[in-house]
Amino acid sequence: MLTIWGRLNSHNVKKVAWFAEELGIPYVRHDVGGSFGIDAAYLAKNPNALIPTIEDGEVTLWESNAILRYLAARHGGERFWPADSAQRALADRWMDWQFGYADAQRDAFFNLVRRQHDARDAGAIARSAEACAKQMAILDRYLAEAAWLSGADFGIGDVPMGVYAHTWFTLAIDRPRLEHVEAWYARLRERPGYAREVMIPLT
Predict the structure, then answer these.
(1) CB burial of residue 59 (10 Å; 0-12, 13-18, 19+)
(2) pLDDT of 165-185, one tens digit each?
């Protein structure tokens, strides 16, 4: 059985738990990181002291998007890991693009979710919200031409930004109306695994 190590209020853990549900993989998850701490046993699995880490049989792996690719290749078949390398790359690019978006969202998220109200930096929140809007406008232009970041169907390329999109729509920030992103987000919300593993209160 797949084992996922990491607390579910982490964007990167949400990615892996949600994708495991999409693949129909039985798994167990153990809370690690944040208030749950990191112990020596976990450091033996992941010397970076970050989450998530998975164990799948004899395979131990960290880095969330690497985990997604591994799970797709091992368990997803042609549906999630096409044999055509060009088709895989079309989805794969959005997985790496997500890292730039995460940088844009970081200050808004940490100030509004992780900090006490009197410690929040209003300027940092505003700058972060503006940077997020610029990134999401890029996403919107692409989604005007395709239903999913993976192409015609939901796929691995939708998972990383799907997690961050929920945060963007949930944070108390100014957001432009982006109809194609909004429609994509509505489609994501219809997926049971997304509702269970991603659409949880921000903490």
Answers:
(1) exposed
(2) 999 999 999 999 999 999 999
